[in-house]
Write a structure and sequence with these properties.
mainly alpha, 0% strand
Length: 33
């Protein structure tokens, strides 16, 4: 695959992981409060 394809997949994975982490953190903060 080309570098552009790999970078696109990598950015998508990073976005999914960061979104999941932010979601768990926000839900934990809401439950604490």
């Amino acid at each position: 695959m080309s570098f552009a394809a790999w970078s696109a997949i990598f950015m998508t994975l990073i976005g999914a992981v960061s979104g999941a982490i932010l979601g768990t953190i926000s839900s934990r903060n809401k439950s604490k409060n």
